[in-house]
């Protein structure tokens, strides 16, 4: 028979004990399981079986009636149970067993407490070691982050100083560039004046068309101005190239400085993080991600190279500004000396010109009439071009609007094909009209020149005197000053 209240799990673990007539003592049964680890399924959250065992063992066992144990026999045939002890006492264990069980429980309790105390001491020591190691490791990381922040601040200050110096140098070179552009633009006036003087003197007729000293000086002046323009243009190209180099160096500095500022912000934020800070989370596997692309040596060398490159460009820019200033001074002085020579030659030639008159009237009226008609025709062509441009705008606007059709609505339909053809046709028409306009304008210029020649033929000598004295010398009075040539205004 099975014992009432026997633990269910232990029943399958140990051999089945021999049947007894009486229930065993609770302490004896409990002692038989003292070194066993119970099986605890994860899906059951109830305590282990000993609790149930003690509850079951606390029940008072009862025996079934003898008549039910021996079916088929009458009560008179059943042998009565006679107690071997007086007063009906059933003895389960001896007193020595009871004392021995108590001593065993005491020793086991002391051993368990000793092991628990030793485990607690080990746990305290382990926790203390873990805390100290974590504090030491975190302190080293914080110290390294602080050193990193200091390094970034140092290079940031160096970058800021170099960037300010580069900005000042770039601004100075930009001012020099503007002066060069103004000086180059100011040479266009003297060049046009000298060129127009030569063209005006070409209008002389007959004996007045002589290769005199004025013409020689004007040709020399044109050559000098061209040489000056070439030198200024070459210098301007060099300045523009240097400005591009300065801007590239500046962009590198600004990009590096921006990266330093972002890195400083991030590292400073990391430096100030504590165990009690907000915003700290778990990032599983982040320690296995290595997104670094540099080491401290290459990191510092990169910024140092940027600063060195900027310093080199600044030195080159300063030398270029000095050489450009020298070129401006030299070219202005050279042009001014030749200008004075041409004016002296004109003054001498004007005193030698005598009055001469001769008129020509052939084709003058027709030329003027043709000029009027060509100008009228030019206006008509211009109006036609404007009308066609409006039509072209309409067609191109339609095409542009149709590009915003959604999805399958972007159909190459007949309207689309016709609009494209319309744009091509209008463009072709505009090209033809522009060619006609240019041809008309060229013809107009030729007619104006022909008219000037005819008018020049009317009075040869007076015209020569008028050209040299009124036109040429009148234009040369507006020659720019040295300050303008140098580009200061």
TrEMBL record:
Keywords: Cell projection, Cilium, Coiled coil, Cytoplasm, Cytoplasmic vesicle, Cytoskeleton, Flagellum, Membrane, Ubl conjugation
Coiled coil: 106-133
Signal sequence region: none
Membrane association type: Peripheral membrane protein
Compartments, as annotated in UniProt: Cytoplasm, Cytoskeleton, Cilium axoneme; Cytoplasm, Cytoskeleton, Flagellum axoneme; Cytoplasmic vesicle, Secretory vesicle, Acrosome outer membrane
Gene Ontology CC annotation, any one: sperm flagellum
Source organism superkingdom: Eukaryota
Biological process annotations from GO: cilium assembly; cilium movement involved in cell motility
Pfam families: Tektin
InterPro entries to which the protein is assigned, alphabetical: Tektin-like, Tektins
Known function: Microtubule inner protein (MIP) part of the dynein-decorated doublet microtubules (DMTs) in cilia and flagellar axoneme. Forms filamentous polymers in the walls of ciliary and flagellar microtubules. Required for normal sperm mobility.
Family that this chain belongs to: Belongs to the tektin family.
Subunit structure as annotated in this protein's UniProt entry: Microtubule inner protein component of sperm flagellar doublet microtubules. Interacts with TEKT1, TEKT2, TEKT4 and TEKT5. Interacts with CCDC38.
The name this protein goes by in its record: Tektin
Gene: Tekt3
């Amino acid at each position: 028979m099975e014992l009432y209240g026997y633990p269910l799990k232990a029943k399958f673990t140990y051999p089945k004990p021999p049947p007894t007539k009486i229930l065993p003592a609770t302490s004896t049964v409990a002692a038989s399981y003292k070194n066993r680890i119970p099986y605890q399924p994860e899906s059951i959250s109830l305590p282990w079986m000993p609790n149930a065992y003690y509850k079951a063992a606390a029940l008072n066992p009862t025996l079934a009636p003898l008549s039910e144990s021996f079916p088929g026999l009458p009560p008179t045939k059943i042998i009565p149970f006679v107690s071997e002890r007086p007063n009906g006492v059933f003895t389960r264990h001896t007193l020595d067993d009871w004392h021995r069980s108590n001593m065993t429980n005491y020793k086991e309790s002391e051993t368990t407490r000793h092991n628990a105390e030793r485990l607690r001491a080990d746990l305290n020591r382990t926790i203390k070691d873990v805390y100290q190691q974590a504090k030491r490791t975190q302190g080293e990381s914080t110290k390294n982050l602080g050193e990193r922040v200091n390094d970034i601040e140092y290079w940031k200050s160096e970058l800021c100083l170099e960037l300010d110096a580069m900005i000042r140098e770039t601004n100075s070179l930009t001012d020099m560039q503007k002066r060069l552009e103004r000086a180059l633009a100011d040479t266009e006036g003297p060049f046009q004046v000298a060129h127009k003087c030569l063209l005006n003197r070409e209008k002389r007729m007959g004996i007045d068309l002589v290769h005199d000293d004025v013409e020689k000086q004007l040709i020399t002046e044109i050559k000098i101005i061209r040489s000056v323009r070439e030198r200024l243009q070459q210098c301007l190209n060099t300045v523009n190239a240097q400005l591009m180099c300065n801007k590239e160096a500046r962009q590198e500095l600004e990009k590096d400085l921006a990266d330093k500022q972002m890195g400083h912000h991030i590292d400073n934020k990391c430096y100030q993080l504590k165990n009690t800070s907000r915003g700290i989370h778990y990032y599983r596997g982040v320690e296995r991600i290595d997104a670094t692309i540099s080491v401290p040596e290459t990191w510092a060398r990169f910024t140092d190279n940027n600063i060195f490159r900027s310093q080199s460009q600044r030195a080159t820019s300063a030398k270029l500004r000095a050489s450009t200033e020298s070129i401006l001074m030299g070219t202005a002085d050279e042009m001014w000396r030749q200008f004075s020579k041409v004016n002296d030659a004109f003054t001498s030639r004007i005193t030698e010109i005598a009055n001469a008159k001769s008129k020509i009237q052939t084709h003058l009226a027709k030329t003027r009439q043709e000029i009027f008609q060509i100008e009228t025709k030019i206006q008509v062509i211009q109006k036609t071009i404007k009308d066609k441009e409006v039509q072209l705008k309409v067609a191109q606007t339609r095409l542009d609007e149709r590009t915003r059709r959604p999805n399958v609505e972007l159909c190459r339909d007949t309207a689309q094909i016709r609009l494209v053809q319309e744009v091509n046709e209008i463009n072709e028409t505009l090209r033809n009209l522009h060619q006609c306009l240019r041809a008309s304008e060229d013809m107009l210029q030729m007619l104006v020149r022909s008219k000037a020649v005819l008018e020049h033929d009317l009075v040869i000598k007076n015209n020569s005197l008028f050209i040299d004295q009124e036109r040429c010398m009148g234009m040369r009075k507006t020659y720019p000053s040295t300050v303008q040539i140098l580009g200061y205004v």
